[in-house]
Amino acid sequence: MAPESSSPAPPGPLSAPLPERVRAVNLGLSLFGEAIRAQGAEAVDVDWRIPAGGQDRLVGALTRLYGRHAERVDQANREAVRRLDEGVAVLVEVGPAADLVPGMGQRTILHPGPPLSWERFCDPLHRSVLAAVMAEGWAATREDAEALVAAEGVELEPANDHHAVVPMASAVGPSAPVFVVENRSGSNRAFSGLNQGPGRTPWYGVDAPEAVDRLRFLREVAGPVLAAAVQRSGPVDVLSLAGQGLQMGDDGHMRTQASTNLLIRQLLPYLAEVGGPDLPALARFLSENHLFFLNLVMAAAKALTDWAGEVAGASVVTGMARNGTTFGVRLAATGRRWFTAPAPAVEQALFHPGYGPADGAPDIGDSAVLELVGLGGAAAAASPAVAAFLGGGMAKAVAATEAMGRICVGRSARFKLPILDLRGSPVGVDLRKVVETGATPSINTGILHRSAGTGQVGAGVASAPLACFEQALLALDERLGAAGRPDASVR
């Protein structure tokens, strides 16, 4: 009889040698990394998020823009950033807006940000428009000005639609003097009104008699004297002055004190040549206005972004502006179309004594154009004054600049940051990176009172709303997809 077969013995418990040293890379929640470190092991946290928050449409668009369209987009982005970084923008003229700004009618008022109906104007911009109407002589009182605008007796148009930019709540009428900046590399021009200075002025949302008088002063005194001085001086390289200002503590947006001083020094001999009885008043105004350079460098940035806006297929943002109600972005591929979201509050703010967050109006002005060319939030690391709004330490300012770097295409060859061993500031906000990471541009800005007409009540940093970038990404994806279809009609 054959012996019975026996079943194999069950295997014993598996054993494996445990590592003597644990090192981990933690993706996601930092709690996991903290738990490992609490046990004496090493762990490195990686800040990773699901691209575009996992939203199907956005992830699909990113897949195509980083995939089948990537070569075209990357090539266009390189050219767009070259234009932003290498364009030569020079001040060539000062004169009345009606004579110089394209499409400026005799009853046109230019305002910041995307288009907006009069009933949606925020209080500071509402007041600024009324001050401009009174300064133009179209109405004698605030009530008459209000009635005229409400009856559509004034054309309210975005400055950006006229190749112009205005800061904060500025409103520019046809008789207001403007800077004319020419892009010598691209042969296009951009414009901005003269900075109105400190105190109770319209660009800060004030419509009191002294605010109207400031506009008249710019038209009757400052404008003509500066026009004569610029005519004598010849072209002024605006971005060269801005670059020097970064070496002296400016960020080129919230702080332009050094660049203003450099500009006044360059114009001083020619102002003296002009002479005349109005010169002392202009000299006092300039000596008290540390933001005088702001409007000029905004016009220079606008000239470059308009030039970059001619590069079809780029995902580089070429327009960014707000009107106190909405925040908008533009792309070259989509022409003059604005992608908008509600204007954000200004955060990381320092308020004047007696004021707080409840008093602040939403973010306003066209000055966010500066962040697109490597100034403002992109150059926060250059300015100890800006660091005060970010917690008081230069490390926070450096972190703000580096955060901008993570959503930009490149680094500026013209704007060097001393604290970063003269590395260039980030330039060329890439729509794809913004939507992929959920990180939006930071904008250094002032804060106006939301309703009282008392003017500026603080300053701080605003974060652009993500929604408008998401809209623009989907439009770019659709645009490039349509361009690839043989039966599609693409403008």
Describe the protein.
- This protein has 491 residues and is α+β, with helices and mostly antiparallel strands.
- Helices cover 37% and strands 20% of the residues.
- It is built from 15 helices and 17 strands.
- Strands 7-6-3-8 form a four-stranded antiparallel β-sheet. Strands 11-10-9-13 form a four-stranded antiparallel β-sheet, sandwiched between helices.
- Helix 5 crosses helix 7, helix 7 (209-233) packs across helix 9 (257-274) and helix 8 (238-246) packs across helix 9.
- The relative contact order is 0.14.
Name a few traits of the molecule.
491 residues; alpha+beta; 4-stranded antiparallel β-sheet; 17 strands; 37% helix; globular; disordered N terminus; disordered C terminus
| Classification by helices and strands | alpha+beta
Largest sheet: 4 strands, antiparallel
**Radius of gyration, rounded?**
27 Å
**How many H/I helices?**
15
Termini gap: 94 Å
Helix content: 25-40%
* Strand order in space, largest sheet: 7-6-3-8
Strand content: 15-25%
- Shape from CA axes? globular
The counted number of beta strands is 17
What is the mean predicted local confidence, pLDDT?
Answer: 92
Low-confidence stretches: 1-5, 486-491
